[in-house]
Hints:
The structure holds two protein chains of two kinds. Chain A is of the alpha+beta class. Chain A is built from four helices and nine strands. Residues 1-65 of chain B have low confidence and may be disordered. The longest helix of chain B has 15 residues, at 119-133. Chain B is built from 28 helices and 20 strands. The chains are: A alpha+beta, B alpha/beta. The interface between A and B is medium-sized, with 32 and 30 residues.
Amino acid sequence: MQHTISVLMNNHFGVLSRVSGLFSGRGFNIESLNVAETSDPEISRMTIVTVGDDAKIEQITKQLNKLVDIIKVVDLTEENFVDRELVLIKMNAEARVREEMLRVVDLFRAKVVDVSSSTYTIEITGDEGKISSFLELLSPMGIKEIVRSGRIAIGRGNKSLTTN
Amino acid sequence: MGLTSRVNSAKVFLRHTFRTRGKNRPHLFEKQWLYFYDAGKTISKSELMTTKTKNSAKKKAPSKKSNTGQPMKGRDILVKALENEGVTVIFGYPGGASMEIHQGLTLSRKIRMVLPRHEQGGSFAAGGYARATGDVGVCLATSGPGATNLITGIIDAKMDSIPIVAITGQVPSTVLGSDAFQETDIMGSTFPLVKHSYMVQNIADIPRVINEAFHIARTGRPGPVLVDIPKNIQQQETVVDFNVKFDCPSYKPNLNPSVLQCKKAAHAIQTAKRPIIYAGGGIVSSGASRELAAFAKKTGIPVTTTVMGLGSFPSNDPLSLRMLGMHGAVYANIAINHADLVIAMGVRFDDRVTGKLAEFCKNAQFIQIDIDPTEINKNIMIDVPIQGDVKQALKVLDKYVEPKKDLKPWLKQINDWKKEFPLTFENKKGEIVPQAVVAEINKISEKDAIFSVGVGQHQMWAAQFLDFDKPNNWLCSSGLGAMGYGLPAAMGAQVAFPKRQVINIEGDGSFLMNIQELQTLKIENIPVKNIVLNNAHLGMVAQWEDRFYKSIRGHTFIGDANFAEVAHAFGIKSESISDPKDVGPALKRMLKHKGPYVLDVKYPYNDQCNGHVMPMIPANHTYLDTYLDASTTLRDYWEKKGHLEEE
């Protein structure tokens, strides 16, 4: 089963290596991984999407917790959460497909963020389902390049993940 | 938050994953550059002033007066910080990037610097020191090859949860990332091998980093911590505050076991008919031997130990089942596999113990006490997990368990197995039997002798035939199985305990791997007694060849050497024997000698069970597949007796 794990960690160099090394060394999967500072520049937050059975996920969260620089590990999958991904897509914008492309962009509340004589660059955010159906619709029109941020996620409701 | 600051921090953050270097370098090291400029402001010239203040500080108690307000060099700050941690011995090998620290160490009156003859010897010696004392062992090396040579000792300490601090010099941070001479990203290389690691980026951080390194190495589940210090930071000067308090919110190992879980465990113990304690290195590192003995005595539950757990429970106690696992006592393996409750304490269900996991103790419930949550449910699903320090847990358990009065049939059964399958060996006429050498030294050595071993057949024979009353007397690279461990580890222990007998039992292959440390023994007068069980083969691999590869020798013959003559060349007293009659007298001569000693014991490798470590459970098999001798398995034996159908 797919799990989305949020991790608070010291913003020390090497932490990302420790985490990615843990995953590769112990044969855990990483579907996506995203990391950036939190409001406290000393603390970073990482969102890891991984796949595994309960035993594997238990090991993953325990092993993450064991790293000295890691402050908190929460498996968001255990509760309700919102997740989003940002994708930038450079499209071959041939004249015959431009109209259609813009209509799809509109339907999905995506945006065209850059235009050249032969390309459109489109920005979209959303959850996995939205993004995959968007990409499915676009792909026959000629995707030149694609870049995805990896998923970020946050728990629903009034609880929040802090260092305290 | 501005995008730029995010990008910059991410760059520093990513430094060890994506080594984008070259033109971008100054930006990549933005934070470090800032540090250097800060530190640079305080540079002044006062090199020797540090010694006076340094020696006024009391051991282990960081003196508040130590901060005199006078600037100190980074190297001297480091030495003082180490002294404040109570360090009295460092095993260090100098080089370009660490010689500054060695200059500082020559001025220390508290720290003895022992020069190993290879950095690997240094890291193993630190491990041996830590295993024997229970305190942190310290090794030191230069950048590049010096640092990489430490690695085997670092991962050995990780696998066996041994507290060591490894300090490495690094090229100046101004050239870091430029493939400078002897530059190695040692921190990046050792991420998966350490409990934690630091690269010192600011001279003012040295006291805090050293304090954290020692705290992290020795607390919780102990392990190795690496501290990498660029040369320019060793050379800078500043005024620092040594009055540091450990403050690392992300590191808070929980020691206290849940009382509720302990009650559940006590209940399971009370209802069990065939309980067994499976004790490991955690008992030793937690210092819980006394509590374990009291618990076993009170409840009457028998104890088997892992190779790491040797010494955690007296080998000759009536409740002792000695060592279990691949080369463990047959009765220990039978007993644990017939148990209805396995109480695991400070163990990690290693494959050398469990064999085929799916078949291991199939009908038992499991209680596991471990300080490391990752060990619980890692290989085996645990019915009653207790996370916490095993010493605390045993104290809590003691309140809830009662003497068990219904264990008589179980203990009688175990005693029958002990009689039927004794852990023993055959003597032979005309040639030395290595097991007999171990048995003899066991008999004539002092009670508190410390034994060190390399890795191979001799290691297992030592584990089988040495008796241990107390913990910390057994230095064995167990999880990693690093050949060449015995001599340097013994050296480390002997430095800690100059008056005790420290006896290193090694095979010829293992001995050769760190034989250079003989010079250290000689020059530093470290009186380690070395017994080399010399059969001119890599015996353990040869044994597997005999058993699984039709005795085809795949480079397991290493040839004969006279280790007595080698020792002689180093100026060490030595003897070489090959007649069984000489074993006793030669061992006595060795123990009588005051200085270091090498006893070369020559015996032929033979491919019969006598030359093999027996009993043996082939890897990934069950206790029923135990080879009792060259051709009979326990399964065959019991089938013949009609025993298996009863089960």
